[in-house]
Amino acid sequence: MLDIGCGWGGLGLYLAEILGAEVTGVTLSSEQLQVANARARDRHLAGSARFLLQDYRDVPGTFDRIVSVGMFEHVGVAFYKAFFRRCAELLDDNGIMVLHSIGRSDGPDATNPWITKYIFPGCYLPALSEVLPAIEQAGLLVCDIEILRLHYAETLKAWRERFMARRREAIQLYDERFARMWEFYLAASEMAFRKQNLMNFQIQLTKRQGIVPMTRDYIHREEARLRGIERRTRPALRMAGE
Fold first, then answer.
1. Tens digit of pLDDT for each residue in 54-78?
2. Which domain holds residue 213?
3. Where are the transmembrane segments (predicted)?
4. Per the confidence metrics, is the pTM higher than 0.85?
């Protein structure tokens, strides 16, 4: 499995640990790289989960699965065609890709200047109308699209509550100006999801028909199976000092 924009390694390590997947995660952040590989070593997963400081366009080989969570917002509309063309090249003929991104429900728009300046330089939240043509031109098939509407508002609310509970620590690490800015960012983002038509989308892609089941029923069965694996695996890992 290839994890494009692997972050701190959480998803890749979960899949390696619970499913026994052989994971390659790529990031452009040296800080994320160090933390992700340290986590892999701490969990004795370095042999099955490796994290690289590498651009996804330079990754060699092909993969059974490709996943990208929270990275696509930084690709930019001008590079969507190149992104999906490269994903098509990296995906095995029988492979499956899942793309998860924040998006807009009401069509293309500009990024808020305050967000660009202080939070996410170069960020752009896409509309599906901008994404789907690039997927089609890359020769990939859309098998499923899931829209998560208010879910992320609840996530942002929880993040803000946790931040506020430790706000004094943030001031000690940075300063009062940063704390005000971060509180405003989390609150404004929550309201954008509640009131201004932001959402998360998840797109499932393949290269040909018949790779995934016809209906979503298999997802619920797989979730139940994974919960069973977790119940069996987690206690054993804790006993082993994990």
1. 999 999 999 999 999 999 999 999 9
2. 2-149+198-233
3. none
4. yes
